[in-house]
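Hey,
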Amino acid sequence: MRFATLLLGLLLSLPVWGESIHKLTIDGPIGPVTANYFLDGLETAEEEGAAAVLLEMNTPGGLDQAMRDIISGILNAEIPVITHVSPSGSRAASAGTYILYASHVAAMAPGTNLGAATPVQVGGGAPGMPEEEEPEEGNGDEEANGEEANGEEPVAGDAGERKMINDAVAYIRSLAELRGRNADWAERAVRESVSLSATEAAEKNVIDLTASSTEGLLEAIEGRVVSVMDREQTLELVGATIEDRPPDWRDELLSAITHPNVAYILLLVGMYGLIFELANPGALVPGTIGGISLLLALFALQALPVNLAGLGLLAFGVLLMLAEALAPSFGILGVGGVLAFGLGSLMLFEAGGPGFEISLALVIGVTAASLVIFTGTATLAVRAFQRRGVAGVSHLVDNEAEVIGTDPSLRVKVEGESWQARCDASLNPGDRVRVVEVDGLTLHVEPLGNQGE
């Protein structure tokens, strides 16, 4: 037992040496699918005994929860995570800056940049009321460190925004302190949305080094000591095989579906498909496409930060439009449903980051188009209701007719047809009469001269 313990200690003290390095790629906004891809790749690398994970990153930012999931995976990883902002022209903005700070090794290629890490609110939540005690929470010089202080009364929503920024500051400072990087600049990146080039970032100790290629990066960090799970490890990675593990087609597809604009469009297609199917039973195509689109939209919505009030308005709008399709109300329910749907669309997503904003033009355009459709449908329905029928016999009422015979029975001619008729007054051939009722194949008429008009 003592020998086994000694052997385990010797193995843990050896430098990191593995046959392979798993290379993961983040190229685009960071969302739930991106986080799952990274965490699955990290877990696979640990299970296969990889020496390290090399994360090649180019991102404008993304969702807060997805970013925190990635960082949590890095902080609890059993192998080093080396993040490289590459190739030249890439960036690690917003959420990417946090991930760089969390990584065991942070590197950037020349011609790249990072920063602009201020959290953003892109919709929805009800603003909180300002609290008098709020400025006294945390550091007393917060407003002097980047927040605008103009002496004005805080407006509704300021308290919530300050809490969000203070939380982000505390989070990125904790990451900077953990990795021994520039915590003051990290705070400025959150409060003032400042950015740095790769060279400046290396000079200010925001990152560890700059490297133009993967090979150059591995050579530069050869022999570097990093802390992994409170355990120091020496990196010996030169010569290791780099296994590229890019996102597969499934990750790419799910990443596209979970974009707010795509999810919103899928929701619209699903809703209108079901409405058309219910209005025209048996069409099959609208119902099939609508059902598939609606299920994909529901998958996307469960992965995105959704505002329940917006979702409720959205659902209520759908119900009103379905009611219009099943029990036409000359557009009243349809127009109300469109308005509720439009308001719900604007409130649907609570918060997000760069690359995950819902397009206001898309919402306004779809709502306006739906309003025009339902208004036009309602107008046509009202006109059709007011127009006199041209089928059957009910349209004969109030028409003028001419008496063409009285013996053996009264007969009149209306719209070129000869009808048997009845009348309480005495009539002669050639008299003009008005049809007052249709009783089977007999018309009830009255002389035009007897009308008091």
